Here is the input.
Amino acid sequence: MKKIQYILMVAAGLWLGGCQEEEKWGTGDKTGFLISLDDVSVEVTTRAASEEFNLVVTKDGITKPFEETTLTAGNSTFVDVSAGVYNIKATSTSWNEKTTVNTVPYYVAEEKDVEITENDTPKSIELTAEYGCALASVNFPEGLNDIFKEYEVAVKVGGNTAYIRSSSDRVYIKAGEEVTFSFSGTKLNGEEIKPQPLTDEKLPSTFNVKDYYVITLTMGDGLTMDISKVEEKTVEITEEIPLEWLPKPKMEAEGFDGNNNLTFVETEAKTAKLNLDLSSTLQDIKFKFDFQDEQFATLQKDKEYLLSKAEDKAAIEAALGVTLPNVGDETGTIDFSALVAKMQTNAGTPTTNAIEVDVKANNRWSSEVKEGDAEPNLKYTFICNKPEFSVAVQPGNMWTKTFTIDEPTITAGNADVLKEKLVYQYREKDADDNAWQNCNNGLEQVFSTQPDKKGYEVRAYYREGIVSEMVDVELESPEQLPNSDMEEWWIETKKVSGFLSSDKTYYTFYPYAEGKGNSSWWSTNNDKAQGGTVAFNIWYEGCFASCVSYTEDVHGGSKAALIYLSGCGDGYANTSGTYVGGAMVGSLFIGSYNSGIVQGHSFESRPSSLSFWYKYKPYNSDAFKIVVSLKNGDKEIATGTYEPTAYSAEDNTYKQATVNFNYTDNTLKANTICVQFLASNKTSLSESDFEKGTTINYPVIGNWTVHMGSVLKIDDLNLNYDK
Here is the structure.
């Protein structure tokens, strides 16, 4: 255990004064004690004070004290005596006979007998006062102030109690007395935690003189407090010795590994602290810097900076953005955490940045080495690596004039910082490095028109030398529907023979040029409308009429599609007075007809809407309908419907309408498009939906008698690409 002592100088010698009483001085020259205590710094760990002593001088054979006084460091007292043997004793005034525990230490001096003879020559007598108690301290868990507004450990010894309320507090315990520890506190919400006993098999119930136990607490479930560790330490501070006899200052590093290295990624937030462990006030700090990070070039590599120099201290604080302790502080921390967050690589190349820190206190430097000791490692190294991140663009996020980059994936570095500062760039595929441009909408690049080039490369850019790997982007090519101006039509002449009747010639309209049937996108349900009927050896002409044809009443060009609601079809006859079940809604659609409508055609683009021109002649009150669907395989990824409110008045001129597409899945490309125009939105038909026995005048083939309902004319389709 550490030996703590005072040196009391007791000088015995001649007193050359006047006559004194014989019983005290005897005869001749007078003799006495001049007792003094040097002014010393009383140190136990970080506490500093001056101790006061009770001095008792007793003459041999006499029980009653000859002299009793108080002596404080730096002062002296004279005790005049006659010849004889005297006993000198000194004890701390901070304790009395009943004191068992205190917040200040107790010292007791060995007793010494001093013989004084008449005409004695002066001589010096040393009286040594030693540390006469035990010591205990507590390390509280971190974060306790986030839960408690007050807390303490009560140290009870005999009938006295002292309290430890911080990790820097110490209590001093009378040796040989039973000791108990308990924790109590008041939480921030006002709830009181009643005293909880603290016990551990390594913690004795009684302490010996100079014992020193450090108790480390941990918080258990339910906010109970338990002992996680008990350390037995030694007390080495000698109270009257020069400062340089005290332990040399040390630094306790937080965040660094055992070799004082801290490895991190640029932008990362890391704890990096040096906590100063001092036995007396801070006298100075030497700093040396060796930084590869070019941000800190103002700190000279070969220069030694001193904390005691105001200009050096200011230069360090300004360059590193840290706050240094001051000379004279009793404790301190150098917090480099903010510096770590600022450190950078050199354009992506890792940097190694070293700070050498040598602390002076107790007239000693941290770098001091005794013979046989290893050199202390006072260099703290910060190794800054490049952040790592990547980007991706999903196929479904590549449109005709827009692409959207996914949120970046951060594999090394502070994700929040990087995402806030990353810039997203693009260039034409295989262009040079000078061609990079920033996306004009964050993660999205929107071109004002469809660019001629479709292939691009994209990346995330943090700063020079720190970029992601490139990924390819291929924009879609905008497509238009073939025959979107409705100018291509073919009229096929057909014949049918009936039983006991002459052959019947009829005509079918196709929305494509002759010979293009196998490559056409468009089809109709004319085959259903032209089922043909013969009854009682009579051909019913209307049963062979196309419900979809072209008309010369156009918006542009020379042709437009004409679609009507038909009252015949599927081989059903109709007369002017009878309605039968072959009624149907005329339809022009993308796909084919094979005993029914089969919609869809291969398509590799994703428009945002379909615009068209129409003229409508409703029968009674009706509304037409346009339905659009884009698919990826069997999955529908976008739909659009246009269906006006039913009305009765015939349109005199062509009007434009737009079907907007609603994309429900942006991760998939389209590979099929379906478009269908219907002359009516009705799904159930009756006789009232038709004008029976009316005449339709077809181009080329002339007039036909039909049962006809609403008529829709369509012209000049256009797929729009807003993305």
The first helix runs from residue 22 to 25. The longest strand covers residues 702-720.
